[in-house]
Each structure stands twice: as C-alpha cells, then as structure tokens.
Amino acid sequence: MKSQHHVTLRAALLVALCGSAAGSIAAVSAEEASKLKSELMPLGGERAGNKDGSIPNWEGGYTGSHGGPRVDPFKDDKPLFSINAKNMAQYDAKLTDGLKALLKKYPDTFRLDVFKTRRTAAAPQWIYDNTLKNATRGKLENSILVGAFGGVPFPIPKTGEEVIWNHQVRWRGVATRSNPVNYQITADGRAVKLSDIQIDYQYPYYYQEMTPDQFYGPNAGAHTEARLLTTAPAIRAGDAFAGHLNVDPTKDEAWLYLTGQRRVRKLPNACCDTPNPNAGGAITFDETETFTGRIDRFDWKLLGKQEMYVPYNNNRLNTAKADAELLGTHFVNPDFMRWELHRVWVIEATLKPGQRHQAPRSRYYCDEDSWHCVLGDRWDAKGQLWKMTWGGTVAVGELPGVLMPQFGFYDLLTGAAFIAGVNSTGAQLPPYEIRKRFPETHFTSDALAGEGVR
Asked: CA-to-CA distance for 398 and 169, rounded, in angstroms?
C-alpha cells in the first residue's frame, strides 16, 4: 500500500479513525488499556522491536546514574553508517521531507550519522501506574484535556490531537533547571550569540501528592510553569519571563519583565507564531521544543506510525569543549548529532478556517516511547517547505526519563537557523539539573517584579 508518507498498512488503517477532535473524545476500553501490561510498554510504545532487529525490544529503558558532569553514556558507540546527498535515495522512506531538503541544500557538509537504536525511554513506576489509569479516564473536550493526570494522557492514541497532547505533557520530571546559550545562524552561515538564559520548569501535572480532582479544581489546570532569566548579553541582562500553560489553552498566561522599562507586562498573545522575546524574536513561541502551546488553531490528523531516522540519545551535544565546536555552518555540527531508527507517530496540523498562522500546515514526528515530537516540517502560506524544527533528546538515568535540552529550527529557504540549549563543557553552569519543586510564587508576575533589578 503506497502513500506520500510511506506509512505501514497497519498505520494506514488507523487513519480512518483519525482527524480533528470534535466535541468530546472518549478514552479507550479497559480491555484495550490492558495492552500496556503486555504488548505495549508502560508509556504506550510497542514492546517488540521490528522484524529485522534494527529497532530492538524495549527492555526497561535507561536507568543508569553517572553522577557529576553530564557525559555521554554511549560514547563508545560508533556510527553504523552515514546518510548523505549521494546515498539518500536508498533511505528515502525513512527520511522526513525536511531532512531530504537539508541533504539536497548542503550536499557537501550535511549528513546523518546513524547509530545503534537504544530505547532509553523510562519513567518511575508511579508514572506507569497513572498512564494505565489515564488510558481509560483521559479524554478531550473541544481540545481541552480532561481527566488524565500524572502520566501519558493517551498512551493508545486514536487522533492527532491526542498525540500532540502526549507531547505537551510528556514526562520530564517534576522540576528542572537548565542554563542554555541560544544562537542564531545567519543566512550566510555566521553564528551569532543571542542570549544566555537560566530556565526553570515545573510540571504541576506531575505532582505526585496531588489528586486529579485537585489538579482540575477551580483556578487550577496549569500543567507547565516556566521562569526564564536572561543573564547575557549585558544590554538584556535582567530581562525575565514567567508563564503558565493550561489544559485549557484559553487560560494560558505569561508575563515579561524588561530592565529598560523596569516594569512587568502581561503578554497578550504568548503563543503560536508570535516571536518569542526570550530568544530575541528569532523563534516563535510554538517552535519551542518542536511544538509548544495552543493546538486549537489547527485540525490535527493522525497519519499513522512509521520507522524514521530521528535525533535520539543526543547526550554528546553536552560534551563539546567549546560552543564553536557544536556550531556548524547552517546547522549543528554533524559530528555531535546522533541519529537512530525509531518508530514515530506522524501527525499533521492544518490551519482551521478563519485562523491565522505563518505556517498553515505542519507535520510532526513523535517518538512512540517518550512522546517527544523530535522532528517537524512546516510549510508557508505559499505551500513551500519552509522550516524543519528538531529536538535533541538526551537519556537521563537518574530521573529516569528523556529530556530535550537542545532544540531549534533550520530555515530551508534562506539558510538561517536557530539553535537553543548550547552548553559546552567549558561553561560554568551545568546544562540541566533535575530539581525538587520550586515555590509556586517563583512563577508569578510578582516574583518577576520583586527580583527584576539590573
């Protein structure tokens, strides 16, 4: 069976069940949910590998703890092969449109080094337990998440909306702190440092001591809280941002403190294709981590599941001796990127009538095990393939889980790029830390006003 996206027969049959959500979408039956104890791993991916063994069985994920500085637990792995402009045709079915465009645009410099597939996705047992419960209690009501809590909301997805919600509230711990450096690469290939930022994230959706009733109670429902402080360059040092993402996207909130104005402002539209001030406007809000934010502007279609070469276990990105080592011309230095073959859910977003967005059509590739959407393709209003968004996942054994401290986009038309999360071993601060809960006041507008001193 042939299709533009080369989906398998099994995946193609799912398309009949898919499409945008209308009204309420119910959870799966208890019988189907029981597959999470047998043929599916506890977060929803297939336990079994593929027929030729290039994707192995899931055996519990990566739970090792190395301690100390961030290192690559798979540093001794060697590439199995490389994909370049000359041999890309033989791998066509497993390459996204964005990757094909990059290989053609930079035939002499861009390549994919493909490594052994390691299924490192894991989570604590209580996350597995909640995911099993969510399979029969989670649902969407007019794009609003209802019922699910403390685990993957839709481990056995039936629609594209369910997959993108899995990505939005994927397991990343309860709280983290990271210290990224953000770069813009100009159309002529020059790397320009945009900012040094400290980012604190907190995920109330994963408060273990909370009940679903408490999470969805009055004035609640914020699944993600963020706090960003810009430390460089000097002209922007002290700028700060706080934001809350809600299960009801109409209740999302964000505030910005600008040192030059010495006041906190509530952002009227901190979503979608609005330029993100935390990155100097070089990236939009919903290009963060391939996609973040409101989903109600789009109709989401589930195209099926497919074996694809995707960035995975990119712990090596945190081992460069200097930022310059990571910054290739127009893209991340291929020497530091690890690509693996994984099964991903393919979903497509099409702008709803009457809505506006710079990218009226997008396609995302979301890992079946961790639910990170690791690649995305975006088309502009003229129908041109415009941008490829990407996220570099890393295995974090002490969590255990998978994080995405590096992400960005490549402009396939101009050659410009944005790379977030650069943090070489020469940096004074660790690239990311697993933290305990921050005080709730840490993510409020009052906190920005109180600490916003240049």
From this structure: 20
